[in-house]
Amino acid sequence: MFAPFTEILVPLDGSPAAELALGPAHELARRTGVPLLLLSRVFPDDAGVRMGYLAGVADRLGPDVDVEFQVVDRESIPDAILDGMGPDTLVCMSSHGRGGLVRGVMGSVTEALLRIIDRPTLVVGPHAGEPAASFDGRVVACVDGSAASERAIEPARRWAAALDLPLWLVQVADIVRPAEDVVDGDVVESGHLASLGRRIDGVRAWDLLHDKSPARALADLATSEADPVALLVMATHSRTGWDRLHLGSVTTATVHTARVPVLVVPAGGHADAAEIGRTATGVAGAASQRP
Fold first, then answer.
1. pLDDT digits (tens, 9 = 90+) for 246-262
2. How many CB atoms within 10 Å of residue 51?
3. Structural domains in the chain?
4. What is the pLDDT of residues 103-147, one digit of tens each?
């Protein structure tokens, strides 16, 4: 199995909330065979205590994955995370935590990191860590009708291939529209998403959901027992599409409510350049259409 990363870095601050990322990270490391790196920001006077804490966490994770740990003396937690990353490191972090991993829905550190990191980041919301993610089911690339949202498709395709899971495209259409507009809009959106799904290699199916709250629709989708979801993949793009406040009202709300981890593809950097690649432009929705 070829994973799109060579190690998984989990930032920890000593809080149970931050440790919610351990379950999904451990399962992902077990399935892909890559090592885990536990990382904590420290100040010089508490380095020993924090190293002891990380060693204890490593022991709890057991012998089925390789676990290393590291402390970084940096004032900025996002800078400490960047210092600990290698060229192909995946960061898997909780959206909430103590002493910097928490603020609002997304969390100040998570939000700050996603503004500067150059690659997709696995974000574990408060409902996605327990029980630990099994990564069984569909990989769902979430699009919103904008070209920027399509940056989620190529990372989703690579993860689906690495985990041997089916890839779906999903769009949420606003139901608060005049009845005559819903029919015409759905025809256009359905045809557009169907065309996109047929052009992207590896897409198993696509779906158009109707809800005035995209985050609620995606969270409900992730609870489906008939077609389980292993992972949601979303791209951030400020000022347009879903993202209007901070990293986006829909991105943050989806992370906060979904019962599966969310792979967040940040704007810029590797997320939309050579390392990840761009995909076709233009997206819309189709109601449970299959190619």
1. 456 788 889 988 999 99
2. 15
3. 7-124 (3.40.50.620), 138-272 (3.40.50.620)
4. 334 567 888 888 889 999 999 999 896 666 789 999 999 998 788
